[in-house]
Amino acid sequence: MPDLAVGGQAVIEGVMMRSDDRIATAVRIPSGEIKVKTESFISLTKKHKILGFPVIRGAVSFIEMLFVGIKSLNFSADVAVAEIEKEEAAKKGEVYEERKKKSNALLLAGTVVFALALGVLIFFFLPLALSTWLKIEKDALAFNLVAGVIRVTFFLVYVWGISLISDFKRVFAYHGAEHKSIFAFESGAKLTPENVVNYPRRHPRCGTSFILIVAIFAIIIYSISDTIFSVVAGYPPELLTRFAIHFSLLPLVAGGSYELLKLSGKTRDSKITQLLISPGLWLQSITTKEPTYDQLEVAIVALETVMNITESELAVKRVPV
User: Is the model's pTM score more than 0.90?
Assistant: First the structure.
């Protein structure tokens, strides 16, 4: 099965899809129509040759997708708020006037910075602090293995916790719709809900798998860096020193993990690859749910839009934004 250059993300009542040159976000509104926002997007890895080198492109892509993902979530939230305001206006017998929202780059950047800071605190610094408290810092491998286990445990508890919230169950269903539609597209099948529903909802290139790959790759890289520091300095790094070293190596960890994720997508039929990606696919049993036909339609609209497919069999009304 070919591994095509398309990926996506679930948003509020919709799906965002990204190709090599554009982004499309499709959101279902209560009337049954699907609002679609399309914008061109060329990665910095394509614009600047040096940023396209292996590992470097992974770190750049990680930051880009963070911004793109949050921006798409903001769009879907704006659509949801607008629909609520319309309903309230209708109940009051008032005429709803849509307020044009200007994109606030500073607010978006602030949201990304806050999300990164919170993630670093919970999934990065806290595991190091707890591992230091256990007094095992002299053994680099054991220390990073324990820190890695704590980090993964935090992530699993977080994912499991939000999976119990009803609103997130719908988001996870759209996540499943995204995967199924991409699988169908990669297989060359017609993009209809009746066809797409038969494909798997767990995809080897999913960002969920990426998180686990990062955790495992981090154990290896940080064990090596801590060992080198101990040999050079003659003593193991203290908490803040270790944090500084590990944080500075985060682009290497993210970039290397990205390359492994891309490789897993290209070699998905290999027995070895299937074994290595099995933990990530297992985790997707939590982060993806079986979608309804209506949710599959939204994912298909996003995919057809981003891939510029004009011959659609879907009898749904698309409202461009």
Answer: no
